Amino acid sequence: MVPDDLSTTIRMTQIPPAEPAPTTLLAQSGRPRAVFAYALMIAATVATLTWIRGLGPITAPHTLLSPATPPPSAANHHELAHVLLALSVVSIAARAVGLLFQNFLRQPRVMGEITAGLLLGPSLLGAASPELYHFLMPDAIAPLLGVVAKLGVVLFMFLVGLEFDGRLLRGSSHATVAISHASIVFPFLLGASLALWIFPRYAGPNADFTIFALFLGVAMSVTAFPVLARILTDQQLSHTPLGATALACAAIDDVTAWCLLAFVSSVAKAQPGDAARTVGLVIGFLVVLWIVVRPLAEKLAARHAGPLTQSGLALVFGVLLLCAAATEAIGIHALFGAFAFGVAFPRHPTLGEQIRERLEDTVVVLFLPVFFALTGMRTRIGLVATAGDWAVCALIIVVATAGKFGGSTLAGRFMGMRWRDASALGILMNTRGLMELIVLNVGLDMGVLSPTLFAMMVLMALVTTVLTTPVLQLVWRPSKT
Fold this sequence. Notes:
single chain; mainly alpha; Na+/H+ antiporter like fold; 0% strand
């Protein structure tokens, strides 16, 4: 049976012990070459960022920016009815468009669900029928949908962490780590460089140049691990050397990108002089999670026998929400606490599976489509109004693609891969999708991105992800030797 949700896809991405990808695609260049390349890459990154920071301005431009979310309407007295109606429409539309994308366009279902969210937003439904749009998605329910969407993202990130296969990291060679980090460093530096040009016009109201440049670099660097896994499954590549290498690189990419985003958001939210305090609190949270919470959870899991009880599930949810609340209070984002708890959760033979079975259908069918719909409500393509705006949008797509594809391809070739395999790896690592939308919504909430730049970046995420499958089919063919 073909899996039909993101969490199931992640479970299908474990690397069979008999097919360690790096030993078949990468030359046996040994540790010294990888260590030298890695050290050179890090040194170049630090030097380039320092140079970019010296060139950039300090404060954000004083421009009139549209609000990220329209203010609630006092005239609407039926919020609950409208919320329930919106949830019904969003769930059905996301499922229908997702099936259309999967069965007819040969795209991952999640791309159809994201598209459904945009279709229900002001850029399409709002433009075609403003009366219907304001009836289905009145301004007053936007904050309520926002709470539901954020809760859905928190639960989804817990599932991602819960089903994250640590063997993808432990089994990775030095060459794989170097390729993965090159696929972050190249787009990161290109994104930070692009910030020098677009900051005066498109920065959010709460961004100084340093935060803006760092965040744009992170946004360019994301790879959507679940969407990539689904593409590999659809193309029957998940158990090939190329697929295994791509999964290992994307796994390392994910962990590194979330750490970078946590750092940038902590610095952005901290008051002057409080950044060190925020970083210290994050380290303290992780220490408590791994030294106190994880051992206690392992003891409880060891005593677990039989079906998971409602009391046990309540305990898991309680700790999950406490972890999310802790990171939110620290000054980063609740999703980091949920993801960290999922990664730290003990790998019990049946406990994790039972939690997933209880949770994933509700998250994937109800909560995530609400997140997509909210993203659609916040994506106002009409703000990209001029030829100059569209030129900037096209440049963002080119820079994002060049960074991901170029960094992965060149690093793969340097570490001994054939050009064809290295190019295919670069195409796969350019997949963004859902994870990119999560990053962009964090940036919009923090006021780092303006609504116009947010719309451009959403378009970039859609274009780069949709192009992955057809371009891969054109470029890559299995090796005959």
